[in-house]
Each structure stands twice: as structure tokens, then as C-alpha cells.
Design goal:
The complex is a heterotrimer. Chain A is mostly helical. Chain A has helices at about 25-50, 65-90, 95-125, 140-145, 160-190, 200-225; strands spanning about 130, 130-135, 150, 150-155. Chain A has one domain (about 20-225): Four Helix Bundle (Hemerythrin (Met), subunit A). In chain A, about 70% of the residues lie in helices and about 5% in strands. Chain A has a two-stranded antiparallel ribbon with strand order 1-2. Chain B contains 3 helices and 10 strands, in the order ααββββββββββα. In chain B, the strands form 2 sheets. Chain B has a 5-stranded mixed sheet with strand order 3-2-1-5-8. Chain B has a 5-stranded mixed sheet with strand order 4-10-9-6-7. The radius of gyration of chain B is 25 Å and the shape is elongated. Chain C is globular. Chain C starts with about 20 loop residues before the first helix and ends in a 69-residue tail after the last helix. Mean pLDDT of chain C is about 95; it is low at about 1-15 and about 585-589. Classes of the chains: A mainly alpha, B alpha+beta, C mainly alpha. Chains B and C meet through helix 1, helix 2, strand 7 and strand 9 of B and helix 3, helix 10, helix 11, helix 12 and helix 13 of C.
Chain lengths: ~230, ~220, ~600
């Protein structure tokens, strides 16, 4: 269904033709460009360090919990779907479904963060830290003993780089998701107050853009960090 | 103000200095054109009663000329520089007969390791001296440059020689001195509070003097 | 954000009576002009601080090992008996660079002038996101406080240079500094957020809020420069943020990004830092070039020569700036083949700067030049920037760089472009737009005195540094007399120090002129410089909301000495007889 944008959801009135979209949307796209560069710095460093020290990485699944994270990934993708639905509801001025879909997105996002936090605690418990092995814990002992581990080859002597890159990339992604959940809560609250209409639902569209970006970054991270 | 380079005593120096002087001449010409031009325009075109400025938005020919000339100039400089750079720093540029010496930068001195009688670094007859690099004139030496703790930089001004020493890396730095004498070695990368006193010496000997020095060192070590 | 009440709409949001409280009007203002002035005051303080740090450094270099007059007030950890310790000297070196780059020059060029000029010069009532703009300033303030705090913590301030190379910067046991280096990282990450939010605002505003008739090729070059600069800020600063975070993690949580002990790479820091760092130096010069273009056209009473070339040169510099970062790393141990590729790209980036230099000269050619204070600074910019640019050619040639890397030749280059270039442009820009900010003019006589003395002493300080470098004088050296080959250069170091003290002292003239003119300066009319920009159609100082009615733009910028008007300037928003509202601007005009 096509929706003709009106009023404030058009570019500013008394101005030269610019981007063709309203200010807030342009602003979010521009901001997301800076976020791309930030994650490029982190991911680029990961790639360089990994190519330089391939032996410092464990095989996929040996240390990280791929199944749980795969489910978490699926959840995050679902939240992007609910976000799209919320935006469509806003365009249709369907307040009921707008609230429902926004609430769903927020809750799924919060769940994602919760699962990640749980994962981090599990990893620390098993002995995987940003600095690498945790002395006296399971992984360090298994590496010292040598021999196959969890159906894969022997663990590397050092996983310092693995730890550093893993926690930094996923940690900052998690931080961005958390910021997104906070903003989503605010937008959801405003929706419950009836502050969005078919003629002005800028906040819904803009947080949606951010949320899809965060989802996209995760898909990339999940692939290159968990699956490879 | 003196734009001349101090004298240098390695086989690298002439190549480097030649490029320097070419650039000096080219930039001096550009400098004079711009500064004299600015001065002349400021005087010639100062506001005076009855004079109006000339209304124009530019000139395409001028744009083309002053784009092309600098572009061609820098391309020429690049072409001149590339072979000189390769000869000095290229990974395959180290002469096969260069005498190896280990130099390890650390806070705040240079540890110099000599290969000893067998000419091999890393063997049992190696010996290490602090802050003294002894080499033979007119013979290439290759420094296997390492760093213990932080980044230092191996700088011998008299040879036009500089290479950062990076922890975790071993970098080959070769040179061939052309005159005997004692030359200063400095650290050229901030490495901590003692950075200013990482002074060492490069002693360039004749073959005989070098052998005499070497014999002294090995006999000292034996004692 | 979104409400059902009347939304932000340029048609209705115009200059009006301002009845906000003092706090909302001056402290927590969302008005881009007030925010610009807030940045101005903050940055000038940091500029003074950065200069003071340099004076202390110069004392040690001019009079090594001697007690500094007044040095007794410094604690024993910095200068017992007034004699500087090497660790304090290194902190000075580090913090002079850090404060000048991040807290003085960058906010002066961008935080001040992007904020102040953009809406005024494009015909908008304010920025696209006024509240985010306010946040941008108030985030910069704690960043500044954190950076200052480093002087007061145990171990003293950061001591790895403004470039913070690892492993030195990552390991407290190597510098003797722990908290200071961590504060350095944290402060820059926070400042980075301020910059990113700011750049987002500037970009969105320029794209979306230009007044009718203000097409892209009618934008003044100051706005083009600020636009490209903002894109550089947007894309480069996050790289620094990422790198600083990784460095902070190496310092405090035991990671090894840059530490070889567990496979980390010191060179990775350099690549990240300079990938940010090179666009950063273009951030530090492009706005200055933009201001200089506006001022030279005004002073010459002529259109800018080659406006389109100037625009493409700005874009070219912005683009090429991304592919030259390795020229800071020629001697780093990086693959020498990369040295060749970076040399080529670096050589090429000289070309757009050359184009600009010749176009500024072309603007003055056959002009009717008025030597007002901003014009003096703008001409000096061209004269000094060209020296800095030409010295860069020596470094771009990799074999020559082997010799001059990390010597005072580099220091000379940096200061010719940053002081001779950016700072002179800033003196000119502050003087030029002062009446629009404060409604008064700075005193022109004292402005000329300040200019002349600064110009002389500045050259006496930095020109000899070329020679120091050519003689092999290394950077960041606490006591050059340790080396025999540097001992003959001591008189030159002392000469530079004395000149530097005089240079610093002369800046008091500017400070007094700035402060006193605010209260006692001659009142300014709308357009004291007879300029063509849209900002000069507003009262001085410009009111909240800027324009009584949204302006309509009919002309290119810089229509000075236009044949169809009797005055020697034609404002962009003045309709000529027979001219209709612009549908599409004819090519170039």
C-alpha cells in the first residue's frame, strides 16, 4: 500500500530542494554513517588482528554458544519485522497496532540484551575474558592440558586477541542495542500517549531506521565472529 | 637561514640529497612566484580613488595551467623518488654480503649484538655491547632492528638513516658508510622520559681497525 | 520531537521578540549563534592554555636545565626548584598538541563558525536540530574538564605525544603515567560524540534548509568548506573513538590490541590513528580556507577567481585526504611498497591546494584592495600556508622523509599550516564576523598592530625550525645538548624561545581588543564590511530567528563590483530590476 507523506513528513517548506526527506530522517541517515565508521574501526581491527594471528582463535562453537546466539539473532531479526509493522501501523493511523508492535519491538530488543548479558556471564564463568584466558578456570585448564576440546582441535595457547576483539565488538553492539531499547521505550510511551498520527510519525520512522541498522550490524557480527 | 644539508657519509646520502635539492629549487621557485605575486598584487591593486575592481569570475586556461604544472611536477618528483626509496628500504634491497648486526632499542639505550667470529647472529659466539655500533667503511652492514618495550627509532643523521624499531617486529636496515669516524646515533621516536638521552655511537673503522676491535672484544669475553 | 502541535516550519519561525529566561537564553541556549559564542569563549581559553604550555616547553629548550621564572609555583613532581623534569616536559609536549588540536583549533573552526555562520549564510532561522546543537556544546564541556583533570592526578598528564603511539601509551610502566593517559582517551571519546552530533547537524542543515534560490553553486565557499569538513568529521572522528576505546581497554582491562606480548600490533594503532588523523588535519585547514575565500573576495572587491574550481578543490582535498594517511608512517616499519603508494597519493593532494592558492591570487589580481584587518590576516594566510604546503613536498618524497621524519622540519611544517594557516585565518574570521556576533567592531588600529607584530614574531619562531630539522634536531627532546651534533643549534633554540615569548605576549593585544570591544567597541550597522553574504542583511548582532522574512537568493556569492549596480557589492538577496524569483539558477550565477 502506498502512503503519501504529508506536512512535516516532507522536506522543509521554504527551502531549496535538498535531500527530499524531512530533517529528522536525513539527520538519522547522516548519524548512521558515523556509526558505520565506528564499527568499521572495530571490525577492521578484528580482521587485521585475526589475519595476523590466525592460531589465536578457537574453532567456531568451542568457546562461544552458537545455538543460543543463533536464536538471539533470530529474535533480533523478528524485532525488525515488528518495527516495520509498527511503522506501517503509524502510516495507517492505526493507534492500537502501533502500540502493540512498538511494545513488541522494545521487549524483544530488551530480551536480546538480556540474553547477551547472560552469555557474557557464562563466558566469564567458563574462563573467557577480554584479556583472554581466565586463570584457574575451565578454558585455561583445557588449553593447558592440550588435546581435543568440545569436538574441535586443541585450544590455542593464547586467546587474548580473540577475547579482546570479541568482547569489544559485541559489547559495543550491545551498548548500541541498549541505547536503541531506551529510545524505543520512549517512542512506545509516546505512542501510548497518542502522540503519533498518520500526518506526523517521524519518531517512529527515525527510531526504525536506527533499529534496522543495529540489526544489520548484528547479522554481520554474528557471521564473522560466531560462525567463522 | 641555512637550507643546506650537513655532510653525510653513506652511499644513500647522494641519492637522498639530490632529491632534496631538486625539491628545494622547485619549491623556491613556487615560493618566489607566490610571495612576490602577493606582494606585487597588494601594492599594484590597492584601492585608489577612481579605480574599480575588474569584474571577472575566472579564466579556464589559467585553471588548466596551474593545475597541470603542479600535477606534472609532483609526478616527476614521485618518479625520481621511487627508485631511491626502493634501493634503501626495499625488502629485497639488502646486499647479500652485508654483515649482520643486531640492534635492540630499549628504554633508554641501544643493545648491539655482534655475530662474533662465525659471522652468524644468534649463535653462541655472539656478544652484546651497549650503545656502540662498530662497522667497517665501504662495506654494507645490515642491522636487524628490534625493540624491547616501546617504539624507538634508529637515527644516524650522518648516514641519512632512520628506521623505527617496533616491539614484535624485526626490521632489516642496511647501510654502507663511506668515511671512517665516529658518528652519533639518536632515538627519533618518543619512547618515554629518557627519550632525550638515548645517545649512542656508530664507529666506522678500516678493516684492520675493526679486526683489532673485534679481537679485543672476543678476548675480553673469553676472560 | 513529534507532537500534534504546530511543527517546526520555517515559514512561521522567524525573528521575534525574545522573552526567554537568562538561563535559557545564554547558558542553555538552543540558538546556534549563542552556541557558537559559547564555543568561542571556551576555545579561546584553551588556545591560551595551549600557548602557555608551549611557552613552558620553550623555556626548557631555550634555557635547558635552568630554573624557570615563576616555576616555583609548580609542584615537585613537575619542576622541583623551577627546573622542569623530563616527564613534565613530555606531558607539556603531549598536552600542547592535544589542547591545540582538539580543544582550540578544531572547535574554533567548526564549533564556532559552523554553528554561527551556517544558518545565517544559507538563510535559515537556526540549525535543523537546535536541542542536539545545545547538547553538542554541553558534551564538549565535561570532555574539556576531564582533559584538564589529567594535570592533577597521580602520575601526571598523558605522556605519549598527541599521537599516543602504542605500546608507550598503553603501558603505564613505560611512561610512569596511568590516570593521565586514561583520562586522555576518555576525554577524546566524549569530545568525539560532541563533534559527531555537531557534524550531523551541520550536514542536515546545509542539505535541507537552504533558502529559496540558494542553490549548491551559490553557496559561499566558507559554507562549502564547512560542509565538506563536517563530512570529514562525521566519518573520521568515529575511527578515533574506536581506536581510543581499544587503547583504553589495553590500559585498563588487559586487552592486547596494540601490545605484541600476546600478538597485538603496535602498527595497528598508527594505522587507525592516522586514518583518522589525516582527515583531521584537513578538518583543521578547510574551514580556514573557506573563511579566507570570503574575506579575500570582500577585501579585493572582486568575485572569487574560479569559484567552481575552488569548490572542486575543496571536494578533492576532502576526498584525497582519506588515502594519504600512510605518509605519517613511512619510517614506521610498514611495508615499504605502501610507502610508494602513499607517496603518490600524497604528492597529488598538493595539487588542489595549489589550485586554491593561485585562485586567491587571481582574486586579488586587478582588484581594488582594502587592507582591513581581516584582509591582512587572509593575505597572510595565503603567504604562510603556501610555505607550509611547500615544506610538505619534502616530506612527501619518501627518501627525503627518511632524514626529516620526526625532526623540527615537521614541527615547522605543522605550525606553518596550523598557525600561519588556520590561526591567522581565525584571527581574520573572528574580526570579520565579530560585529555580527556582538554588534560592535573590534578596534582596527590595535587589530593592525596585533597583526603586524604577530606576523613578525611568528615567522621568527617557526622559520628557523626548518633549519633545526635539516640539521637533524629531533622532536620531543627534553635536552638537545646531550648530542654533540645538536649543541651548535642551542643559540637558535634560544632565539626561537625569546621570539616565542614575544609572540605570546603580543596576543594580549588581541585578547584585550576582543574583550574591550565587546563593551566599548564602535557600534556596528548591519553590513560594516559591505559584504554580499546573507548574514549581512540582518541586524548586528543578529537576533534570535535570524531573518525577519526568509530571504530569497538571486545571485552567486561574491558579486563585488558588479557592472549593473553603483555600489561595489551586490548582496545575494537583492533583486535586480527585471529579475524574477529564481526557478533554476543559470550556470554559475
Amino acid at each position: 500500500m502506498t502512503h503519501a507523506e504529508t506536512g512535516v513528513m516532507l522536506p522543509p517548506v521554504e527551502a531549496e530542494s535538498g535531500s527530499g526527506v524531512y530533517n529528522e530522517k536525513l539527520g538519522m541517515w547522516v548519524f548512521l554513517a558515523s556509526e558505520v565508521m565506528f564499527f568499521t574501526a572495530l571490525i577492521g581491527s578484528y580482521i587485521i588482528l585475526r589475519f595476523g594471528n590466525p592460531l589465536q582463535w578457537a574453532a567456531p562453537g568451542q568457546i562461544l554458544n552458537v545455538p543460543i546466539t543463533a536464536i538471539n539473532t533470530f529474535l533480533l531479526i523478528c524485532s525488525s519485522v515488528t518495527m516495520v509493522k509498527a511503522f506501517a501501523a503509524a502510516q495507517d493511523d492505526d493507534q492500537q497496532w502501533l502500540r502493540t508492535w512498538l511494545l513488541a519491538t522494545t521487549l524483544i530488543g530488551a530480551t536480546f540484551v538480556g540474553v547477551q548479558v547472560y552469555e557474557y556471564l557464562q563466558l566469564a564463568h567458563h574462563g573467557f575474558l577480554p584479556s583472554g584466558y581466565r586463570e584457574g578456570h575451565e578454558l585455561a585448564e583445557a588449553a593447558a592440558q592440550g588435546g581435543a576440546y568440545k569436538g574441535g582441535p586443541a585450544l590455542p595457547a593464547s586467546i587474548a586477541l580473540y577475547g579482546a576483539t570479541f568482547f569489544t565488538m559485541t559489547g559495543f553492539h550491545g551498548f548500541h542495542v541498549t541505547m536503541g531499547v531506551i529510545c524505543l521505550s520512549f517512542v512506545t510511551w509516546k505512542a501510548f500517549q497518542g502522540r503519533y498520527s498518520a500526518t506526523d510519525h517521524r519518531g517512529v520512522e527515525v527510531i526504525g531506521l536506527y533499529w534496522h541498522f543495529v540489526d544489520l550490524v548484528w547479522i554481520i557480527l554474528f557471521t564473522i565472529v560466531y560462525l567463522i | 637561514m641555512d637550507w643546506m644539508l650537513p655532510p653525510a657519509f653513506s652511499t644513500f646520502a647522494p641519492g637522498i640529497d639530490r632529491i632534496y635539492y631538486v625539491i628545494l629549487v622547485l619549491t623556491a621557485v613556487a615560493f618566489v612566484i607566490v610571495e612576490a605575486g602577493l606582494l606585487w598584487f597588494a601594492i599594484q591593486y590597492r584601492a585608489r580613488p577612481g579605480r574599480k575592481a575588474h569584474y571577472t569570475h575566472g579564466n579556464v586556461t589559467a585553471e588548466i595551467v596551474w593545475t597541470a604544472v603542479p600535477a606534472v611536477t609532483v609526478v616527476i618528483l614521485g618518479i625520481m623518488s621511487a627508485p631511491v626509496w626502493n634501493r634503501i628500504k626495499g625488502r629485497d634491497s639488502v646486499p647479500p654480503d652485508a654483515v649482520p648486526v643486531g640492534v635492540r632499542g630499549q628504554q633508554f639505550e641501544w643493545q648491539v649484538t655482534y655475530p662474533g667470529a662465525d659471522g652468524q647472529l644468534g649463535s653462541d659466539d655472539d656478544f652484546t655491547v651497549r650503545n656502540q655500533l662498530h662497522v667497517v667503511v665501504n662495506r654494507p652492514t645490515v642491522v636487524r632492528l628490534t625493540a624491547e618495550d616501546v617504539i624507538h627509532s634508529f637515527f644516524v643523521p650522518a648516514f641519512r638513516l632512520k628506521q623505527d624499531a617496533v616491539p614484535g617486529m624485526e626490521i632489516n636496515v642496511w647501510f654502507e658508510p663511506t668515511q671512517t669516524g665516529r658518528y652519533e646515533l639518536a632515538c627519533a621516536e618518543l619512547c618515554g622520559l629518557g627519550h632525550y638521552r638515548m645517545r649512542a655511537f656508530v664507529d666506522v673503522h678500516t678493516e684492520e681497525d675493526y679486526q683489532r676491535w673485534l679481537a679485543e672484544q672476543t678476548s675480553n669475553a673469553a676472560q | 520531537m513529534a507532537t500534534t502541535a504546530a511543527p517546526f516550519d520555517q515559514a512561521t519561525h522567524h525573528a521575534h521578540v525574545d522573552d526567554r529566561s537568562f538561563l535559557r537564553k545564554y547558558l542553555f541556549s538552543t540558538d546556534h549563534k549563542i552556541i557558537g559564542i559559547q564555543f568561542l569563549l571556551m576555545s579561546l581559553l584553551f588556545l591560551a592554555l595551549g600557548g602557555t604550555l608551549a611557552m613552558v616547553m620553550r623555556w626548557q629548550l631555550g634555557y635547558p636545565g635552568q630554573a624557570m621564572p615563576g616555576g616555583g609555583i609548580l609542584p615537585e613532581t613537575m619542576a622541583p626548584g623551577g627546573i622542569l623534569l623530563p616527564e613534565f616536559y613530555i606531558a607539556l609536549v603531549t598536552m600542547h598538541g592535544t589542547f591545540m588540536v582538539f580543544f582550540a583549533i578544531m572547535p574554533l573552526l567548526v564549533g564556532v563558525f559552523a554553528n554561527f555562520l551556517i544558518p545565517l549564510k544559507i538563510g535559515a532561522p537556526d540549525m535543523a536540530f537546535p536541542r542536539i546543537n545545545m547538547a553538542s556544546f554541553w558534551i564538549a564541556v565535561p570532555a574539556g574538564i576531564l582533559m584538564l583533570a589529567g594535570f592533577f592526578v597521580e602520575g601526571g598528564h598523558a605522556g605519549a605525544g598527541w599521537t599516543a603511539y602504542a605500546p608507550l601509551s598503553a603501558l603505564p610502566e613505560m611512561t610512569g603515567v596511568s590516570w593521565g593517559q586514561q583520562l586522555w582517551c576518555l576525554s577524546l571519546v566524549i569530545l568525539g560524540l560532541s563533534s559527531i552530533l555537531g557534524s550531523m547537524n551541520y550536514i542536515a542543515t546545509i542539505i535541507n534548509m537552504r533558502a529559496p534560490g540558494m542553490t549548491w553553486f551559490r553557496l559561499p565557499l566558507s559554507i562549502w568548506a564547512l560542509f565538506i569538513t563536517s563530512i570529514l568529521v562525521l566519518l573520521a572522528i568515529p575511527i578515533l573513538s574506536g581506536a581510543a576505546i581499544m587503547l583504553l581497554f589495553d590500559q585498563v582491562i588487559g586487552t592486547h590490541f596494540f601490545l605484541p606480548a600476546e600478538g597485538g600490533q603496535p602498527l595497528l594503532w598508527q594505522h587507525l590513528f592516522w586514518f583518522f588523523g589525516h582527515p583531521e588535519v584537513y578538518i583543521l585547514i578547510l574551514p580556514a580556507m573557506g573563511f579566507v575565500s570570503d574575506i579575500i573576495a570582500n577585501g579585493s572587491r572582486k568575485p572569487i577567481f574560479g569559484y567552481h574550481s575552488m569548490v572542486f578543490a575543496i571536494i578533492g582535498i576532502g576526498f584525497l585526504g582519506w588515502v594519504v594517511w600512510g605518509h605519517h608512517m613511512f619510517q614506521s616499519g610498514m611495508n615499504p611498497t605502501l610507502g610508494m603508494t602513499f607517496m603518490i597519493s600524497t604528492m597529488f593532494i598538493a595539487v588542489p591546494s595549489a589550485i586554491k592558492t593561485f585562485n586567491w591570487m587571481g582574486t586579488m589580481w586587478r582588484g581594488s584592495i582594502q587592507f582591513h584587518v581581516p584582509m591582512l590576516h587572509a593575505i597572510a594566510f595565503v603567504a604562510m600556508f603556501v610555505i607550509g604546503g611547500l615544506s610538505g613536498v619534502f616530506m612527501a618524497a619518501t627518501p627525503v622523509d627518511i632524514y626529516i621524519h620526526d625532526t623540527y622540519f615537521i614541527v615547522a611544517h605543522i605550525h606553518y599550516v596550523l598557525f600561519g594557516g588556520s590561526l591567522f585565518a581565525l584571527f581574520g574570521a573572528i574580526t570579520f564576523w565579530y560585529p555580527k556576533m556582538f554588534g560592535r567592531l573590534m578596534n582596527p588600529f590595535w587589530g593592525k598592530v596585533h597583526f603586524a607584530l604577530t606576523f613578525v614574531f611568528y615567522n621568527l619562531v617557526f622559520w628557523p625550525m626548518h633549519e633545526l630539522g635539516l640539521k637533524g634536531h629531533m622532536r620531543r627532546i627534553y635536552d638537545p645538548s646531550q648530542y654533540e651534533f645538536l649543541q651548535p643549534l642551542q643559540p637558535m633554540n634560544t632565539f626561537i624561545t625569546v621570539s616565542a615569548f614575544l609572540l605570546f605576549a603580543v596576543q594580549i593585544i588581541f585578547a584585550l581588543n576582543f574583550i574591550l570591544s565587546w563593551f566599548f567597541g564602535a557600534k556596528a550597522g548591519r553590513n560594516p564590511w559591505n559584504d554580499t553574504g546573507l548574514e549581512w542583511s540582518t541586524p548586528s548582532p543578529a537576533p534570535h530567528g535570524n531573518f525577519e522574512r526568509t530571504p530569497t537568493v538571486y545571485h552567486a556569492p561574491y558579486e563585488f563590483s558588479h557592472p549593473q549596480v553603483t555600489e561595489d557589492f551586490l548582496p545575494q538577496d537583492r533583486q535586480l530590476e527585471g529579475q524574477s524569483r529564481p526557478a533554476a539558477a543559470p550556470a554559475g550565477h
